[in-house]
Design goal:
This protein is α/β, with parallel strands linked by helices. It is built from 13 helices and five strands. The chain is globular, with a radius of gyration of 22 Å.
């Protein structure tokens, strides 16, 4: 699992961690969301929307590797968010959280934008020892496995003293152990479980469901980019095609990512999807990440069929 994904899971579990980490005193309670942009099927990974409608909206991008376009991409996501919600009058803040300061190439000519960059190590150093975000993210502050062995029970105790619901406590402890496992390869998750006498959260239904949904969305986003580059379909065609792909199982998406390179026409894509959807495994929609309402874009009667014909005609020229 990617490190940035763990942070979004962390903020989803307990939104207050973001505000404590950023040293922001929120004016109200916030909901954390990952939002899919309707016109492109791409996601804005981190948005904190206020419970009080007039308060500030916060956008966060967690960045674990160098990216010279990071600031401009973040601003595009903010602009798209408000473009699709033209009645909103909220103030807003956008924050790029770099896990490693050396990965930040700087703002460049984006320096005058209402955008802030912060570095994880600087933020964690300013937090008190009992802080929830500090103790959940402790692996970023230690360099040696022995430090983990000596202190992990103390970190977990601090997490449990906050008074969260047991389900949320367990998810935060699981995030802590996964971060340790990623950084210190000789410490396995099973060994950490024994040290802490943990219930293996990874085996719970809620964890398996969350992991499956994350893998499905990541695969779908990658396929969307590949299809757009290879076929250059009109946007309406792309939108309906993505809806059809959502009806597939995760394993089917993996197969399609290989098969599509031998395809040259839209009807080939549709025929492949039809074949997979016809298999018995797709009768139970709980086995995949899709929707039962995925449209058949070959036989659409809302004007889309004409557009598809134009696409294929262009392909044949």
């Amino acid at each position: 699992m990617k490190t940035d994904s763990i942070f979004y899971e962390l903020f989803q579990t307990e939104p207050s961690i973001f505000f404590e980490l950023m040293h922001i005193t929120p004016a109200c309670q916030y909901r954390f969301k990952s939002i899919t942009i309707k016109t492109t099927e791409k996601r804005i990974d981190g948005v904190f929307e206020p419970e009080i409608e007039t308060e500030t909206i916060y956008f966060v991008e967690v960045q674990a590797q160098p990216d010279k376009t990071m600031y401009w991409r973040t601003m595009r996501e903010v602009a798209t968010y408000f473009e699709q919600r033209p009645d909103l009058k909220n103030d807003w803040r956008a924050i790029v959280l770099w896990l490693d300061e050396n990965d930040d190439h700087g703002f460049g000519n984006a320096s005058q934008l209402r955008l802030k960059s912060v570095y994880l190590s600087d933020l964690l150093k300013k937090l008190p020892e009992s802080s929830l975000p500090l103790n959940t993210l402790r692996p970023f502050m230690v360099d040696y496995e022995q430090e983990v062995r000596q202190n992990i029970n103390s970190w977990v105790e601090h997490i449990r003293q906050v008074g969260l619901k047991p389900e949320f406590e367990n998810r935060l402890v699981d995030i802590l152990t996964r971060l340790i496992e990623q950084k210190f390869k000789t410490l396995s998750y099973e060994e950490l479980e024994k040290m802490l006498k943990l219930t293996p959260y990874r085996e719970t239904q809620s964890f398996q469901k969350a992991l499956h949904e994350e893998l499905f969305e990541d695969r779908l986003e990658m396929l969307s980019d590949q299809i757009e580059v290879k076929f250059k379909f009109a946007q309406r065609t792309m939108n309906k095609l993505i809806l059809r792909l959502k009806g597939l199982a995760l394993d089917d998406l993996k197969l399609f990512s290989i098969a599509m390179f031998d395809m040259n026409r839209l009807y080939e894509i549709n025929a492949w999807i039809d074949e997979r959807l016809a298999k018995p495994a797709h009768n139970d929609n709980s086995t995949n990440g899709g929707s039962e309402d995925s449209p058949d874009i070959q036989n659409s009667d809302d004007g889309e069929s004409e557009e598809i014909g134009e696409v294929e005609a262009r392909e044949q020229d």
